[in-house]
């Protein structure tokens, strides 16, 4: 039987069951607890300094839209002193990204943040549509992920920002932990749970939603009536990641703390010196000048393959798994069964 009052304020009527804890709480307490947890994640990890210029990687999807809204709210509430920007990448996917970018353009006005859009076409001379028509429906996300990573760095340097924040959430990170365990890639485990990463010469990247559950992000967007785009990318998601995701959802259904537990397990792995990834000397790509550990950066290696019609030879299974293990290809490819429901999940009445 649902309780009569909110488990947190003990006065208002509860209208939702919090996915992370199972508590029956009211809407205001949900907003407060969600925002406070993100604030605590940010302050405990010392993510920002006053005066930082921060770009929010914005796809128009639920994660990055909620991230932009919450970053704006917390920046004002707690006086972080950040200058916030929206940074979007146009992969060139007709019927998908062109529509989601319209959402980002509306967000720009709603949140009063400057927006920069960079396209694969202008950066690489290829759109994802053309890549898929050339290589077929295989490895699409591998190309897209490598290109996006570099595009975000380039966009950030054009905006002259110190920091990029992305909407990767706890589910994404737990999935990546599982994938690295399933592959025995222990060296990558520590890195994939890091809230903030920064290589030499690269811009700081962080994940303020590291401990935020996907279901709670969906609920937050729903109850705040945020304007976001919920259609999935038309290209094929990685099947292997799909298995990790399905497994994680099953675990979550049996015990909601499973997601955080898996992240904590990943964090707790002590990586012995001999299994740490070998650090290669940093140099610049001879083709585009981007920093790279080889003569050609990953994007240019893929581009040369595409141009020579050798894209399949460039991506071996092992290489693809390694590239994909960096982080989920995009929030866009998620299957969110509850998007089409009239009410958010866990809403009691
Ligand atoms: S699912 Fe994401 S990474 Fe894959 S092709 Fe689509 S936009 Fe790119
Ligand atoms: Zn309450
Ligand atoms: Zn290059």
UniProtKB/TrEMBL annotation:
Record-given protein name: Uncharacterized protein
């Amino acid at each position: 039987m649902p309780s009569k009052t909110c488990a947190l304020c003990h006065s208002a009527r509860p209208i939702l069951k919090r996915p992370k804890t199972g508590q029956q709480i009211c809407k205001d307490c949900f907003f407060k607890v969600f925002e406070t947890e993100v604030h605590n994640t940010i302050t405990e990890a010392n993510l920002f300094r006053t005066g930082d210029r921060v770009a929010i990687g914005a796809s128009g999807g639920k994660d990055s839209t909620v991230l932009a809204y919450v970053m704006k709210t917390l920046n004002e509430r707690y006086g972080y002193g950040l200058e916030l920007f929206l940074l979007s990448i146009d992969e060139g996917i007709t019927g998908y990204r062109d529509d989601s970018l319209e959402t980002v353009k509306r967000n720009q006005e709603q949140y009063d943040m400057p927006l920069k859009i960079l396209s694969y076409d202008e950066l690489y001379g290829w759109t994802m549509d053309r890549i898929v028509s050339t290589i077929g429906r295989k490895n699409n996300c591998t190309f897209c992920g490598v290109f996006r990573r570099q595009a975000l760095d380039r966009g950030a340097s054009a905006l002259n920002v110190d920091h990029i924040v992305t909407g990767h959430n706890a589910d994404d990170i737990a999935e990546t932990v599982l994938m690295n365990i399933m592959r025995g890639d222990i060296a990558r485990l520590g890195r994939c749970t890091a809230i903030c990463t920064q290589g030499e010469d690269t811009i700081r990247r962080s994940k303020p939603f590291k401990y935020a559950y996907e279901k709670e992000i969906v609920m937050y967007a729903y109850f705040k009536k945020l304007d976001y785009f919920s259609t999935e990318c038309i290209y094929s998601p990685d099947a292997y990641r799909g298995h990790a995701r399905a497994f994680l959802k099953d675990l979550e259904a049996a015990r909601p703390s499973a997601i955080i537990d898996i992240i904590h397990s990943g964090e707790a792995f002590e990586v012995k010196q001999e299994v740490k990834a070998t650090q290669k000397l940093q140099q610049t790509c001879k083709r585009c000048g981007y920093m790279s550990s080889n003569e050609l950066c990953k994007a240019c290696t893929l581009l040369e393959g595409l141009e020579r019609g050798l894209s399949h030879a460039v991506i071996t299974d092992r290489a693809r798994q390694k590239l994909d293990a960096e982080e989920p290809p995009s929030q866009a490819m998620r299957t969110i069964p509850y998007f089409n429901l009239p009410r958010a999940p866990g809403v009691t009445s």
